[in-house]
Amino acid sequence: MHENMQLIESKRSLSDPKSVCLYFIVKDSGIGITEQSLADLFESFTQADSSTTRKFGGTGLGLTISKRLCQSMGGDITVKSTQGVGSEFIASIKVKLNNQALIDDTPNLTFTDAFEVLIVDDNEDDLKVIENQLTAMGLACTACQSAKQAIDIIEHNKEKFKVIIVDWAMPSMSSETFLIRIFNINPQLYANTIVLIMSDESLLNNGAKKVSIKTILQKPVYTSVLYEAIESKVVGSLNEVPVVNAVSEKSLAGIKILVVEDNSINKLIVTNILENADAQIYLVDNGLECIQAVKSQSYDIILMDIHMPIMDGVEASKIIRNDSDKAIANIPIIALTANVMKDDITRYLSIGMNAHVAKPIKAQKLRETIILCLSK
Fold it and tell me: Which positions make up the signal peptide (predicted)?
């Protein structure tokens, strides 16, 4: 999988002060496109690779349709590409400004007590995004594009940073080596490390587990998820620890939890959350394996993904609820899914699931929901 980045920027129209132009920028570090192919890229039924053995499918109409849609909205799509390096597509549309005042119903994601965060990422665009998120939270941040630069800064400012956010896939120095160096300089900062990953391939040989990293987030990171991750690192030193946290951690100790999830990153995130609470975690990849697992041994609760190959979470839940063995039929099931529409949640509950936790998963919400289901 090739690294990619999506950005949204806006610029006010000089010719029409009541309009703005929105730019959607998509960059990747993939195979790139030849100059010859670029010239025909937006033509109908044309592809950069038209061979019968091409790796990437499609009809050759997507970009043509997208370009015409953008042009119909006063914008366009342009592309720059270097073969073997990557491509950058910029889609733009012109929109009218709304004269009505907007109501800001977003939660308050700012820290009352400011502190400083160190960000380490070789991707300049990723650095910019994370830096903007942290600034909006009221935090000061220092950005580095190399592990060596970060180590130099930490060695000269050992107590300056409360949290460090580091990209897992960096050149020059492996993240494992980098984090071991951080541990030797400042063990507390090491404990407050948040690792960012782009894909499964970033977790080569489960390296993050080798250095005992507890907080791993997948890019692109939602602001609310990043806020919660940072808060969990510093809450003990800046705020009073909520009572529910202590209860949640203690109450999950020894609980046998079956996690049914095909995505390895989601597995890792859930495992990190629950292992911190001393729960016993068992992992399977799909609904069929889940059915086989519950028949071979007992579990206290099931965390069920919805969209999976072979057998999805809905079908697996129906089979469990109809099992002749009451111990199996009555196992609490929590749906873990990005489907958050009211109709979706109602459907999951109607087939016998006990609760729903939205992805991206928030640690506190997951722990509280598990405890609630087990207490019924």
Answer: none
Q: What is d(CA 171, CA 135) in angstroms, rounded to the nearest whole number?
A: 26
DSSP 261-286: -S-HHHHHHHHHHHHTTT-EEEEESS
CATH number at residue 187: 3.40.50.2300
Burial of 245 (0-12, 13-18, 19+ CB in 10 A): middle
Nearest to 24 by CA among 36, 14, 10, 39: 10
Q: Let me know if residue 108 belongs to a domain.
A: no
Residue 252 near residue 371, CB atoms below 8 Å = yes
Single pTM value for the model = 0.51
C-beta separation of 123 from 169 below 8 A? no
How many whole angstroms separate alpha carbon 54 and alpha carbon 353?
A: 43
124 shares a domain with 84: no
Place of tokens 């959607």: 24
**d(C-alpha 296, C-alpha 98), whole Å:** 59
Two tokens, residue 145: 């594009």
Residue pair 101/76 in contact by the 8 Å Cβ criterion: no
pLDDT in tens, 30-84: 788 888 788 778 876 555 454 433 444 444 577 888 899 999 988 999 998 888 8
Residue 174: DSSP 8-state? -
Token code pair at residue 363: 């640690």
